[in-house]
Amino acid sequence: MPTILTRVISDLLVALAGGLIAQMIARWTELPDIVFFVLIGVILGPQGLHVFRLAPSATISDVVFTLGSVAMLYEGGRSIELPVMAEIWRGVLLLATLGVLVTTGIMAVAIHYILGLSWLIATLIAAVLASTDPATIIPLFQQVRLEPQLAQLVQSESAFNDATSSALSLLLVGMVLGGSVHIGHALGQFLRLMVGGLLIGGVSSFGLNLLLSQRRYRRVMLDSLEHPAIISLVIVLVSYLMAVWLGASGFMAAFTAGIVTGNAKTLGLGIPGSHGVAHENYLFTNATVIRMLIFILLGSQVNFAALWPQLLPGLAIMTVFLFISRPATVFLCLPLDSGRRWNLRELAFVSWVRETGVMPAALAGMFAALGVPGVTDLSSLVFLAVLLTIIVQGASTGWWARRLRLTQ
User: Fold this and answer.
1) End-to-end CA distance of the chain
2) Phi first, then psi: what are they for 302, rounded to 5°?
3) Are 337 and 94 within 8 A, CB to CB?
4) Rounded to an integer, what distance in angstroms lies between the CA atom of residue 218 and that of residue 331?
5) By the 8 A CB rule, do 121 and 374 touch?
6) In angstroms, rounded to a whole number, what is the distance separating the alpha carbons of residues 253 and 207?
7) pLDDT (tens digit, 9 = 90+) per residue, 131-147?
8) Burial annotation 101-129 (CB, 10 A radius, 16+ → b, else e)
9) 8 Å CB contact between 171 and 186
C-alpha cells in the first residue's frame, strides 16, 4: 500500500525523468529548456497522462516553490559584477524600482478592465508578472555577445526586479488575505522588507563567506573541508531565515547574499580555487533541478478548463504586456539615468528583452498553496507569459541585437 511519502517520491522521480527528456528536446531544437519543462508538466499532470499528481496545496510543492525562489534569487545576485554595476547602477535601480511600479500599474489597469477583477487582485497579478528572469536571460547572453554595460544592465535588472517584485507581491498578498489597505502602512512595510532584507543578507553573507576565505584568522579546521560548497547552501538559508525571523524580506536577503558571494574577491574575500570550482558545480546542479521542478509543477497545475474561456482575454493582456508595458517602462525610466546616456538603439533592445520565468512561476505556486483569491487567473497568465516571452522574445533576442548593431 503506497504511503504519502512514496507517492511524493514517485512524483519527484517522474518530474526529474521528464525534465531530462525536456532538456534533450531543448538541445535538439535549440530553444530554452523551460518551455519544454512546462509542456512536460502539462503532459504528465492531471490534464494529461495524470502520472504526476502533486497537488498545489501539498507541503512539498510549497517547499519546492519557496526554496526555488530563494535559490534563483541567490544565483541572480551572484551574476551581478560590482565593478560594472558601479557604472550603471542608476539605470538598474530605476528599472528595478520605478520600472516595477510602472509595469505593475499598466498591467493592473489591463487586467482589471479585460478580466473584470478587483483592483487589488489585478494589482497582485500584475506585480507577480513584473519581474524578468535571470535564469533565462543569463544563458541567452552567453550566446549573444553584447557590450558589457548593456548586458549587465539587463542581467542586473532581471535579478534586482525579482527581489522587488517578490517583496511587493508578498505585501499585496497580505492585503488580499487581511482585507485592509492603508497606503502609508503598506509603503512603510515595503521599505522595511526591502531595506531589512538588503542589510541582513549582506551582513550574514559577508560573515559566512569568511569561512571560505583565505584570511589568516580562518579556523584551521576549515582548511580541510571536503565539501566547501555546502557552505553556499548554509549562506543562502541562513540569510533567508534571519530576514524572515526579523520581519524583513527573505527573498531580498537571499538576493543580497548572492551579490556578496559572487563578488567575494572584489570585497576582499579571497576564495581558494578548489573551493570556487566546487561552489560553481554545486550551484549549477541545484539550479538545474530546481528549475525542472518549478516549471514542471507550473505546467501540471494549469487549469485548461479555466484557461480556454479566457484565452482571448489572456492574449489581449499579453499583448499589453509585451508591446506596451515593457517599452513604456524602459522609455520612462532609463532616460532619467544621469550617470549614462542610453541611446535609442539600446532603449529599443532593452524594451524587447523581458523574459518571464522562475520567480512568477514560483510565486504563482506559493499563492496557490495559500489559497489566494484569483490564483487561477494568475497561473493562467503566468503560463501564457512564460511561453510567449520565451518563445517570441527569447528566440528573437539575438536577431534583434544584430539588427540594432549592438553585438560585439
Assistant:
1) 61
2) -70, 125
3) yes
4) 48
5) yes
6) 14
7) 876 656 665 665 667 77
8) ebbbbbbbbbbbebbebeebbbbbbbbbb
9) yes
Return the CATH number of the domain spanning residue range 56-403. Answer: 1.20.1530.20
Amino acid at 165: S
In 3-state terms, what secondary structure has residue 116? coil
Tally helices (H) and strands (E) across the chain: 19, 0
Residue 49 has pLDDT above 60, yes or no: yes
In a 13 Å sphere around the CA of 111, the CA atoms on its Cβ side amount to 28
Domain borders along the chain are 56-403
Name beta bridge partners: 146. Answer: 407
Q: Which three cell numbers stand for residue 4?
A: 504519502
C-alpha cell at 6: 512514496
220 — pLDDT class (breaks 50, 70, 90): very low
CB 364 within 8 A of CB 128: yes
**Would the CA dihedral through 82, 194, 355, 336 be positive or negative?**
negative
Name the strand (E) or helix (H) holding 41: helix 33-44
In this prediction, residue 43 has a pLDDT band, given cuts at 50, 70 and 90, of confident
List Cβ neighbours of 351 (8 Å cut-off, separation of 6 or more): 326, 327, 330, 331
Helix axes 273-300, 375-388, angle to 10 degrees: 120
Q: Would you say 82 and 92 are in contact if contact means Cβ atoms under 8 Å apart?
A: no
Residue 117 is which amino acid?
L
3-state secondary structure (DSSP) of residue 46: coil
CA-to-CA dists, residue 289 to 104, 126, 391, angstroms: 30, 27, 22
CA distance 365 to 55: 10
Name the grid cell of 303. 487549469
The predicted model scores a pTM of 0.72
Which among 288, 292, 291, 287 has a CA at the least distance from the CA of 40? 292
pLDDT digits (tens, 9 = 90+) for 91-125: 888 998 899 999 999 999 999 999 999 898 999 99
